[in-house]
Amino acid sequence: MVxxxxxxxxxxELTTLQVNLGKLCNQACRxxxxxxxPHRTDAADNMGRELADEVLRVLGLGGxxxxxxxxxxxxxxPEFRRxxxxxxxxxxxxxxxxxxxxxxxPGQEDLGAFxxxxxxxxxxxxxxxxxxxxxxxxxxxxxxxxxxxxxxxxELGYGRGDGLVLNLVYNPAGAFLPGDQAALEADFKQQLxxxxxxxxxxxxxxxxxxxxxxxxxxERSGNRERYLRTLLDAFNPxxxxxxxxxxxxxxxxxxxxxxxxxxxxxxxxxxxxxxxxLREFDRRALETRRIVTGEHCLGCTAGAGSxxxxxxx
Length: 313
Fold this sequence. Notes:
This protein has eleven helices and eight strands. Strand 7 (248-251) and strand 8 (257-258) form a beta hairpin. By secondary structure, it is α/β, with parallel strands linked by helices.
């Protein structure tokens, strides 16, 4: 990275405010870098009303094009719908990182209609178009529930080219890099349409980051060093301009600021020279900050690169 002039990394224009509403989730996936699950009910793990107000205050200052809501299952946070409504009133585009199975949870029966009403972009995780591969990674019955969720979203108009955007997220199930995003997207579209009549807009390929549950699996399976070497050998300088940390700021459930969602899970706060809490938000300082990096960052610069929006190079 030094040799190609990409070090140190600095942020550029801030366009996306990514907010983690908490670690409460109706699933406990093997690959989850957030370590989320049904047991994460503590107030300290989930954003409350006061900080939700702070999110809306910062959005009201202007300059952000997109609000990216994530978790856990962000929809389980009591502030989720208020944040969506008020962000849309501010003219901000809202993206919901949805696990699909939440659409069938008790009390969430109207969730899909709510998202459609506010024209929220849905980016949904689906490890594979086969039940075996998906359930192996996310738990028994998840694939069937995901299919039901996707069909319900299609019925609402999502993924049909009418402005209600439905994206899917794919990440490999082993210690290897994802394949070509365009080829995988074509494969997913063909298989899901042929087998279920499901339509969607784009497939995002995301490299597994060597942190949390995935790192634990790498260590248990004896793949840690080999995987890190794979990432290092596949370093691609062309990925540097499109790294998500350069135009995004990540907000934890307690308002702490991070350069990205992965740094958040490792508790690597923004550089000491920049604001470190949402209450201290300063656009100019954050747009010129130095990015805090670690060995996990190799995942975002390997091969075609990786970001919350898929490949970058």
